[in-house]
Amino acid sequence: MEDSTSLAPLGTLFLAVMTVLTFALPLRLAFFPLLAAVCYMPLGQQMVIGGLHFPILRLLILAGVARAVSRGEWRGLAWNQMDKVFVWWAVLSVVLGTLSKPTADVFVNRLGAFYYAVGIYFLVSCWVKDAETFLGLVKALAVMMVPIAVSMVVEKFTAHNVFSILGGVPAITVERAGHLRCQAAFRHPILAGTFGATAFPLFVGLWFQGGKAKKTAMWGGISASIVTVAASSSGALVTLLLGWVGLALWRLRHRMRLIRRGILVIILLLALVMNAPVWYLTARLSGITGGTGWYRGWLIDQAVAHFDEWWLCGTTYTANWSVSGGELLDDDPDNIDITNQFILEGVRGGVLKLALFFTLIVLCFKAIGRRIQNATAASLAAGMLLWAMGVSVYTHCISFFSVTYYDQLAVIWYWLLAVISRIAYGESADAVLVASRENPELRAEEDKNTIPAQEMAVG
Question: Which residues contact 26 (CB under 8 A, 6 or more apart)?
Fold first, then answer.
């Protein structure tokens, strides 16, 4: 990252407009400027103050916190178990991450990650307190996904990234194995593809709200699919396909315990019959889809082999994991390219930080699972929204095996976690969009698909 301010005129104008909107928009749309920055503003746009880097997203978070505090929008927040685990995860990311190499540079780096995580989580907790507000933002995201898809189609045919005029992304599209890897405003094509793949389930949830939301959801889903495919990332494509599988399991939602146990048995059987560890399945899969599946399996191997180096506080040196030197980062020869979020959690904070990360994911699924039966009994729209949120978390978990989250994609992950905390743990989940029952078309569809209470009890 550059050490000087690199705000282009268009970036400065965008920042000014989004800052004004942050204070001017009503509460239900207050998060819109941050979503717009995620979609359209390359993170190479930044201000450097006193040696500290403030990309546009960080500046908008600061503006959002100023609004939330000055207007008292934080009042009435009730802490739940998920909130507490998230805060502990964020705090230990700084403390343990710094202890792995107690220098000012490492501390500042970990503090920056803490700022992103806690800032986004706090603002979502203040501004997105019910499912209706969340759905409004999903609608906005669906609309904003369309220009991203259009730009990536143009990029696919011209090998030129239109977002390069804003700085922070290359003008000429990267090519690998004969395929152009489009990235739009994202720092890497994999991030762009993963963004589309993990957003897709939310648009399916939006579709089931009926009315005009169906058309918006359709365009959002089509655009998200285009974004995923145009990125030419096998990991993102697999994430999208497995997301479809997760959505299709809606009819079997009352049999998920059996399905989870079945998957576990299959993994154990594969571990018994395979010559290599079971995580090398990614290498077999990449033989079909392309990509770097072997490297992903090898990376898990190295994390296990070097467990003693990172388990306590993490580590800032992984170069010794490398075999040929080709795995080393160009801008950081002390470390290899870690493309697995789970491993990165351990490397940046040890086993405890990794355990808290897993705990957050488990709490998401448990909260959604507890709410989904009651919500489905009241409204198909409510049940499908919750299911789509769960599938979105699941797709993020799939992508964690192929990419580490930073910049825009990290914002989307924190947004989803905070929304689940507010909705799935809150009372609103039992009455998601009760007003949608006034839509005759949706009411007829719900009456046809809602499972009777007796059948749910048997399930």
Answer: none
DSSP letters, 30-62, are TTHHHHHHHHH--TT-EEEETTEEEEHHHHHHH
Q: Categorize the per-residue pLDDT at 200 as very low, low, confident or very high, splitting at 50, 70 and 90.
A: very high
The yes-or-no verdict on residue 149 having pLDDT over 60 is yes
List the one residue out of 42, 421, 15, 398 whose CA is nearest residue 237: 398
pLDDT above 70 covers a percentage of the chain that reads: 86
- φ, ψ of residue 174 to 5 degrees: the values are -70, 145
Please give the Cα distance from 191 to 410 (Å, whole number): 10
pLDDT at 440 over 60: no
* Token pair 């230990």: residue: 92
pLDDT, tens only, 112-144: 899 999 999 999 999 998 889 999 999 999 999
Distance from C-alpha of 55 to C-alpha of 123, rounded to nearest angstrom:
18
79: its two tokens: 């802490």
Nearest alpha carbon to residue 408 among 169, 161, 90: 169
Residues 85 and 356 sit within 8 Å (Cβ to Cβ): yes
CB atoms within 10 A of CB 2: 11
Class of residue 142 by CB neighbours under 10 A (exposed 0-12, middle 13-18, buried 19+): buried
Residue with tokens 């762009």: 192
Give the gyration radius of the chain's Cα atoms.
22
Domain boundaries, the chain: 80-260+348-458
Looking at the predicted structure, is the pLDDT value of residue 458 above 70?
A: no
Query: Per residue in 276-316, pLDDT tens?
Result: 777 767 666 655 555 567 788 889 989 999 999 999 999 99
DSSP 4: S
